[in-house]
Amino acid sequence: MNIKHQLVTTIITVVAATSVTAIGAYAFFNVRKSINTNRFTAGTLDLDVTANGNVNEPINIGDFGSSGKVSGSKVWKIRNSGSLPGKLIFNLQNINNQENGCNAPEIEAEPGCEKDSVGELGKAVAIEALVNGEKVAETTLDNGKDFVYDKSLTLQPKDEVELTVNWKESSQGFGNEAQSDSVGFDMVFRLEQ
Amino acid sequence: MNWRLVWSLIILTTAIWILKNESWYFFVVQSGSMKPVLKIGDLIVVKPETEYTSGDIITFKNNEGRTVTHRISKVLDDSFLTKGDANKTDDSVRISKTKVIGKVLQIMPKVGLVANFAKTDAGFIFLFLLPLIIVLATKNQIMAVAALIPLTGILFLRAQYTSADLNAEVAVKSNNMKATTVEISLQDTVNNSPKSFLFNLSGFQKGSLSATTIRIRNTGKEKTKCKLLTRQIGDNKKCEQLSLKILDEDKIIYSGKLVGLDLKLGEMESGEKDDLVFLISDNENADNQPTVCNYVLEVGTEANGVFSDTRKASSQIEMAE
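The joint structure predicted for all components is written out below.
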């Protein structure tokens, strides 16, 4: 092998080795700059929802509108019972307004009343949610889409937060067309990592 | 053969290929919602596909920009519902198909821990620099197999992180609000059938007395107070000449003119009934004209709530010639 050939080979080798090193260093520092989430998270995520000491106790009002009874409240305690922090989400699902038949005063107020149709109570009931006393969502129970709380609060393990749901007659008001009507819904609480 | 040159070129081209190749990606699993399939510290190989089906484990960018690996639970028109195998419920947000990075093709248990080490200063030295120096310093062909180590180091440096986010959900079901009913009815005392008139008399004799009984029933669910009202219909004056007495269990609770009655009854529980006897008489000295009285009896509720009810019984009394 002549000297010239050796020189060329050496130069190529050095350039290649330097390039590889440069590429590796580039990749390394690029990774170090762009990734700062290299944490492994083991544990569990779970939550408990209680009201008056009862697990998953729902709102149950059977005489809305009687003797001026058009408002009330419910307090749920939401506790992160897992070992990881979680972001709190809640919303309303499966809102179901029912007519439940049409009695005489209802038909008088609502001539087209049909016993199996959609009831009017939901739009007459406004609800609001307060997390630790601060209002975070409100809606009427004919829709519920606006009643969403999405990850504004992180619950650390064993943390507990109070969610108060107040309900009252909506600004629209109501009369006999809502007699015997009912509105059912699910309140869904969620913790996400 | 100059092995240094050979291995240098092989390492260089392979390193460039590893870093530039976008047909697959490496991710280190950081959390445990895909247990038992994916465990924390596993390295996964993800390859972009044109089609994904339910059951595929995919890696995607969520709405917060974080990289998550979950299984497709439902394929929708332009998005996917996803779920971690260890989670009880689907993820709350649908994943747009454009946010999907690829499908998990290969799982390398615990290799992600090594990849994580490669991103540290020590890892960079031991998994890249040192092996590279050794390879380039050796003249031995077999020793140069160690070239695989720095290549693996580069491959590890390319690996990104993916969460397999846990979630927990509690649904408080069967929340229910039901409006009460406020309803009264006017009934016939014989068969409880609805009654829409009180008296329909023709040939009523001056000085005579006519009696009827009417049942008022609280058919609503709400305890309510009731009141009775009478008013004439039209502008004839005969109604003003007629007298009315109302008896409740043999006690006179009203005595006066037939029209203009405004009588408060007691509170009635739901389902309670009250039978009232109505006695109508004409003043003997009254004029013979006019001869007809049309009037309406109204029974109304006095509930304090937002609901109320009023039932009406229209009647006509026609005097004898």
